[in-house]
Amino acid sequence: MTLNRRAFAVLFPIVLLGHILAGGAAYLGYRHALITQNMARLQQNLSQLQSAYAEYASLDSQLLYVVRNSSAFLTFIDESDAEYRTRVLAIGVQDSLQSLVPNDGTSVSCSVFQSDGRQIFYFDNGSDPFQILGTGQSAFAHAVLNDEVALRSGLVTEGDDTTYLVMAAKVQARTGGVGLVGPQPDQSLVMQVAVRPGRFEKIRRTMAHEYGAPVELSGTPQISYRELSAGTELAPGLYAHETPSVAYLRGPLTRFAAVTGLFVIGLSLVSVWVLMMLVRRYVIAPVEELDRQVTAITENRRNDIDVPDMGEVGRLAANVRMLHGQLTRSLRQIRQLYETDSVTGIGNRIYFNDKLDQFFHISVTTGRPLTMLFIDLDNFKQVNDVHGHRTGDALLGAVANALTATVCDATEGGAGAMGVVARLSGDEFSALILADPRGDVVTTLIDAFLLKFRGGFRVDAVTYPVTASIGVAAVPDDADTPAHLLSCADHAMYHAKAAGRNTVAFHADLPRDGTAVVTLERSVMPEERGRAMRPPLPQVSGPAA
Fold first, then answer.
1. What is the value of pTM for the model shown?
2. Side-chain-side CA neighbours of residue 356 (13 Å)
3. Residue 145 CA, distance from chain mean position
4. Which of 133, 179, 293, 406 has the smallest CB count inside 10 Å?
């Protein structure tokens, strides 16, 4: 999993969870505010309902009081002639009522019942001349006759769903006063006034439509366990209570939840995108750049690491750079030890084989001739046995230095000539020169090197009876592979020894008599074979020539 995916997998759940919690808190806050707002509105509506009820109750009370105390009504109840009372005196009562009824279209009726329950008077300000007292109002009046309460009011709903606010009172037949009937109940009347509370009913219907539930009227206060519920007292013993339906709040809450959910998802994506951009710029990008540089180094496409000035990533890059430098130096040292002859300080056979492949490739691709000198020291074993290994090692080192100096001098003057030297084994050395074997560079090199052995080889003011036999082979004249080139040069070297030593033999000048060419294994001493078979280390640099 890449760093980008890891960062997204870490950031997105955290950001989403945080925004979900924030959205949940916003939802709860909105729900509380919505309930509080609607509770205030509900209480306001109930207050309006209570006010409307009180207004109509006050009208009922005023009508009842004024009519009961009017002279027309007192004359009406004192008249014993029922026919005269109904035809003549009732008109005066009607006029008294008509003068008190407001002109806003309020429906008002008045009725009078005798103690035996018989209706002796009814008036309605409606337009229907045949209007009669409703059964609900009649039952209410009869209930007052049979009750010990002198005055009662309440809401009565008729069969046509018309509601009236009714107020009834027991009236003494002789005085018109309101009070409980004495020992002569036949002398009492019941006077009842009914008002149709239009505004009160309109508020009830509006509330029922708005809240999805009717306004309940009861004789006792109701208890609701819902958060949105309220009630009010309309009159003593009459309470109004409203509990909106569940769907009333579900709509706005659902819409708010949907909007909040979309907002949370959108905000989470935007927040994660912004965070990913910041994390990528300040964390992931520097790490990826460091990874690219390290990868380029491992693939040999880069040599060093850039160190950014960025906190932990910069310190990490500096540490990786320091580690790479230490590793590079260690590998260079190991390779130098691996490819350097410990006695002479020049390249060993492993180094020589590597350079032989390189020079052979250059020769093949560019067409330039490649010349190999295979050098063997004559009489070295005698010097080593007589004077000891320390002297022998010193002699080998001096020969290596002389050969290196001679190759350097010869190749410096040659146009484009390149050369390396190495100790192959024991007293055998070799030199590779990218030059013609018969050209001035190779000829000058051979002459200068053999000149150093005339009369013996001098080391620290001591001359040793050592000479050099040199075999020369070239590509493409003598060989077509590196191994074949080495074999040809080795073969030519043995011909030089046979020719009297301290001389040179060119493989191209040897007789073609079918003589077997000495194999590569022949020129490797037993103690060198194990080292020659070891695989080469990764190339860092070659030893100094």
1. 0.56
2. 27
3. 81
4. 179
- Asked whether 323 and 309 are in contact (CB, 8 A), the reply is no
Q: Which amino acid is at 108?
A: V
The rounded distance, in Å, linking the Cα atoms of 452 and 467 is 9
Rounded to 5 degrees, φ, ψ at 382 are -65, -45
Specify the DSSP class assigned to residue 357: H
CA distance 542 to 545: 8
Find tokens 């009630």 and name the residue: 231
End-to-end Cα, the chain, rounded Å: 49
Map tokens 């009208």 to a residue: 59
Mean pLDDT value across the chain: 84
Q: How confident is the model at residue 181, as a pLDDT? A: 43
Given a contact cutoff of 8 angstroms between Cβ atoms, the answer to whether 368 and 415 are in contact is no
Which helix (H) or strand (E) segment holds residue 152: the answer is strand 151-157
CB 297 within 8 A of CB 305: yes
CB contact burial 317-351 (16+ within 10 A = b; e otherwise) = beebbeebeeeeeebeeebbebbbbebbebbbbbb
453-473: b or e for each residue (b if 16 or more CB lie within 10 Å)? beebbebeeeebebbbbbbbb
pLDDT at 85: 67
Calculate helix-pair angle for 440-451, 389-413, nearest 10 degrees. 150
- Would you give the DSSP letter of residue 458? E
pLDDT at 1: 67
Question: Mean pLDDT throughout 164-186?
Answer: 66
